[in-house]
């Protein structure tokens, strides 16, 4: 028996709530709140039609800690699943502390005025959650999220140590638009335009944004250009796999996407500092978000597959020398849309959000304090990925990536 409150009615929130309703034995009472209540109601209607389960809906501005605390008190959930935006993380953590409720999210806290992708703000809540006897689980999406669980599973079952790790994130989907982002454009563009950083010999090495490019042949998609980027799980992986010499994150982008983004950046449309227009302060990136297609609107037209995985090289447990393993999931956009009404980028994040919530409410993952995904047993999580729409495969490669 468990009551959960999900905050955030975007693509990820939609998938997570649909999947919770499909697992009504674990999630017996589901509540959904977001800034725009009509989006919650649309999700609740779809969930009712597809599963017969009733989801209660509410309007909330999660930046308002007092209002969020009142809502949590009125509902009395055991867990709050934060699927709003990274800007709301600390406010929702504060509301969880104020009401004695466990917390989970899929993306690290971001201040509105500077792109950082760092965990220290949330790690600073460690003592407060511990003393309150509460658990906060950070980053249970696909990346961050599953990519860390993949690494820990390899370390538990295939490799004694991990010397190098490469995370490869390929979206081979085609949405038929000249330019659109597959999840919140503001967060996506911030991520892509930030300098690249990778972990090497005990420190982060910074290189220019999109400065390192390689081609990789992704199963189910074909050869794609991928670019080295910074991504937040590199920070927790470097912390929890201390022997790691090098960790990198790669994401694929098509030439048209890069071309559009370069122009937008050159003309200043990706700036996150306010400019004055007609006497009003506007943030160019927020304005750009308003004119781009809503990620959720891409669902019906997106075709193709995502392919996200980890390639890890390290010492075999039996002393037979170094080995390399590739562990990945391939997800089809059209199948994802048929199941929950959302494309695969939302699906591959919303399913792990449901699984992370299940780990907490079933007690499969337990603890007091603030936790990253690397700190728990990967096995029950990996089993649920196979059972709930994100099956994974693992294979041994001849050797590490040649670059
Ligand atoms: P969307 O922009 O589609 O949805 C965000 C939702 O949060 C919207 O419904 C929005 O409301 C709501 N919201 C925004 N501000 C507030 C607020 N102050 N109070 C209450 N609700 C608010 O984003 P996605 O669904 O694509 O992404 C959700 C989260 O998942 C993000 O944090 C994103 O970074 C993360 N993510 C993680 C991934 C991973 O693999 N780990 C991958 C993809 C996303 P409104 O509709 O009114 O704007």
From TrEMBL:
Organism: Novosphingobium colocasiae
Residue ranges of domain Saccharopine dehydrogenase NADP binding in the record: 4-137
Primary gene name: lys1
InterPro entries: NAD(P)-bd_dom_sf (IPR036291), Sacchrp_dh-like_C (IPR032095), Sacchrp_dh_NADP-bd (IPR005097)
All residue ranges annotated as the Saccharopine dehydrogenase-like C-terminal domain in the record: 141-390
Protein's name in the database: Saccharopine dehydrogenase
């Amino acid at each position: 028996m468990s009551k959960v409150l999900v905050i955030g009615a975007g693509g990820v929130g939609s998938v997570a709530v649909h999947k919770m309703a499909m697992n009504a034995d674990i999630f017996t009472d589901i509540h959904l709140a977001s800034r725009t209540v009509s989006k919650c109601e649309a999700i609740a209607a779809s969930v009712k039609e597809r599963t017969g389960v009733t989801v209660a809906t509410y309007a909330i501005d999660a930046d308002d800690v007092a209002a969020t605390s009142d809502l949590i008190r009125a509902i009395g959930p055991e867990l709050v699943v934060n699927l709003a935006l990274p800007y709301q993380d600390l406010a929702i953590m504060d509301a969880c502390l104020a009401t004695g409720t466990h917390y989970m999210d899929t993306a690290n806290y971001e201040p509105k005025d500077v792109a950082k992708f760092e965990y220290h703000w949330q790690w600073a809540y460690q003592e407060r959650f511990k003393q309150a006897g509460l658990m906060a689980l950070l980053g249970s999406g696909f990346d961050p999220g599953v990519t860390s669980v993949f690494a820990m599973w390899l370390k538990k079952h295939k490799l004694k140590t991990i010397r190098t790790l490469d995370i490869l994130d390929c979206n081979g989907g085609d949405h038929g638009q000249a330019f659109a982002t597959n999840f919140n454009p503001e967060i996506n563009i911030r991520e892509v335009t930030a300098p690249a950083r990778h972990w090497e010999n005990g420190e982060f090495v910074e290189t220019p944004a999109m400065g390192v490019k390689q081609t990789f042949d992704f199963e189910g998609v074909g050869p794609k250009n991928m670019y080295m980027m910074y991504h937040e799980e590199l920070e927790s992986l470097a912390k929890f796999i201390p022997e790691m010499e090098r960790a990198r994150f790669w994401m694929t982008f098509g030439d048209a996407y890069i071309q559009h983004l370069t122009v937008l950046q050159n003309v200043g449309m990706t700036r996150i500092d306010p400019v004055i227009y007609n006497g009003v302060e506007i943030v160019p990136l927020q304005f750009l978000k308003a004119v781009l297609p809503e990620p959720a609107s891409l669902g019906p037209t997106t075709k193709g597959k995502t392919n996200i995985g980890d390639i890890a090289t390290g010492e075999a447990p039996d002393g037979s020398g170094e080995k390399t393993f590739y562990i990945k999931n391939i997800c089809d956009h059209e199948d994802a849309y048929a199941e929950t009404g959302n494309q695969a980028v939302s699906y591959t994040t919303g399913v792990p959000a449901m699984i992370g919530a299940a780990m907490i409410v079933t007690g499969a993952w337990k603890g007091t304090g603030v936790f990253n995904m690397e700190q728990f047993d990967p096995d029950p999580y990996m089993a649920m990925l196979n059972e709930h729409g994100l099956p994974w495969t693992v294979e041994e490669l001849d050797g590490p990536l040649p670059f």
